[in-house]
Amino acid sequence: MNFGEKKTKQTLRWAMVGGGRGSQIGYIHRSAAQRDGYFTLIAGAFDLDPDRGRDFGMNLGVSAERCYQDYRTMFDAESQRADGIQVVSIATPNSTHFEISKAALEAGIHVVCEKPLCFTTEEAEMLRDLAESKNLIVGVTYGYAGHQLIEQARQMIAAGELGEIRIVNMQFAHGFHSDAVEENNPAAKWRMDPKVAGPSYVLGDVGTHPLYLSEVMLPELKIKRLLCTRQSFVKSRAPLEDNATTLMEYDTGAVATVWSSAVNAGSMHGQKIRVIGSKASLEWWDEHPNQLIFEEQGKPAKIIERGMDYLHPEAIVEDRIGAGHPEGLFEAWSNLYARYAIVIEAKNKGDLAALEGLHYPDINAGVEGVRWVENCVRSADLGGHWVDYQ
Ligand code: NAD
After folding, report:
1. Can you give the C-alpha Rg of the chain in angstroms?
2. Among residues 302, 308, 301, 303, which one has the least CA distance to residue 327?
3. Binding site membership of 139 for ligand 1 (Cβ less than 6 Å)
4. Are 205 and 197 in contact, with CB atoms under 8 Å apart?
5. Smallest Cα–Cα separation from 174: which of 221, 140, 210?
6. Dist. CA 230 → ligand 1 center (Å)
7. Residue 353's pLDDT is what?
8. How far does residue 291's CA lie from ligand 1's centre (Å)?
9. What DSSP string runs through 166-221?
10. What residues of the chain score a pLDDT lower than 70?
11. Which of 67, 209, 289, 362 has CA atoms 20 to 30 A from the CA of 172?
């Protein structure tokens, strides 16, 4: 159980690029990173508008001289200070992730980057090589991956409780963009512009989330081929899709579907994963994060509750409040940031033993998300053909 005691010796000197006033995701990064005292926010280039970014950073308690006009100035200045930043979180629109991550790594700074990591697998692999050569980490914020019931599912599947895995059903299908909200909403608008969003909208924006949950739960499965179709139901969004369906075959013979959508009218987030084996199935839904449904063929269904002693030890270890009270997005993100801090300290010390057994959405998760989108787009643009996974 997590009683708020740190598992690292140091508190990391941390900065943000983006995540400024009014941004969607900046607050959750700050809440998650600072909740357990692993990170202290000491610098930032928070906003495309430097004055607004400085005003915002100072309001958060960052000194005026460390609220920078842009990220390059920040990396240059901070890497010359003895007390300079050790890690930066990047919460800007997608088109900037590659160049900002690259600049941070080149300056010797660990990176936590938003998804999708970049636009092409080639770029993602360049970042992986660069991070490896500098002994730095790149974490990617697939936030719910830090929820303890995702860990419980991983452990149950590894223990064979589902039998042989046959089918994985995934979706992240919300209804918030059922009509052209982007006409009056700049934060929605960039998501539908290929120059800023990249080669996809919903595949990269939402589909990669349950995809990563499946990678956590089923680390052995490798995609062999897939077929994707994508549509722009709001026509002005073309060529980017607001709905996509992906069928996948794994090298074990198991199969999967991923439904990615922003036009699932009436739905909230609708992020779900159902893993079906030869004996039983598990299902988890982000809107009911405290329950994992376990259904064994021929037996009454079980609801596995977060925080209970019957969970696998690996799932209990990150519990914060005990059973009965809800834990969700904020705690899951905080667990991820805690893991990033532990890995960064272990990397800095060269402590390989500490790294064993710890998993988190790392650079490989980032690369795989980009690779999956690339393959989906390739299949869809061929008219919905099966393509070998590259
Ligand atoms: P947003 O448009 O609401 O905010 C973007 C922020 O970045 C703004 O403060 C803007 O001023 C700033 N910015 C833009 N370019 C900058 C630059 N070059 N330097 C400094 N600041 C800059 O966007 P958002 O919805 O917060 O999304 C940001 C990223 O987070 C996207 O990549 C998105 O896909 C991702 N995201 C992830 C999740 C998740 O669950 N992991 C959820 C939402 C968004």
Report:
1. 21
2. 308
3. no
4. yes
5. 210
6. 24
7. 83
8. 30
9. EEEEEEEE--TTSS-GGGG-HHHHGGG-HHHH-S-SHIIIIIHHHHHHHHHH-TT-
10. none
11. 362
- Rounded to two decimals, the pTM is 0.97
**Closest CA relative to residue 256, chosen from 286, 204, 221:** 221
**Nearest atom, ligand 1, residue 142 CA:** 41
Say if ligand 1 is within 6 A of residue 374 CB: no
Please report, to the nearest 10 degrees, the dihedral formed by the alpha carbons of residues 267, 268, 269, 271 taken in order: -50
SS3 state at 240: coil
Query: Ligand 1: does its nearest atom lie under 6 Å from the Cβ of 223?
Result: no
278-334 pLDDT, tens digit each:
999 999 999 999 999 999 999 999 999 999 999 999 999 999 999 999 999 999 999
Q: Which of 114, 88, 99 is nearest to 23 (CA)?
A: 114
In the chain, the N- to C-terminal Cα span, in Å, equals: 40
Do 387 and 226 meet the contact criterion of CB atoms below 8 Å apart? yes
User: 139-152, pLDDT tens digit by residue?
Assistant: 999 999 999 999 99
For the chain, the 3-state helix, strand and coil shares in percent, each to the nearest 5, are 40, 20, 40
DSSP label at residue 320: S
Report the SS3 class of residue 377: helix
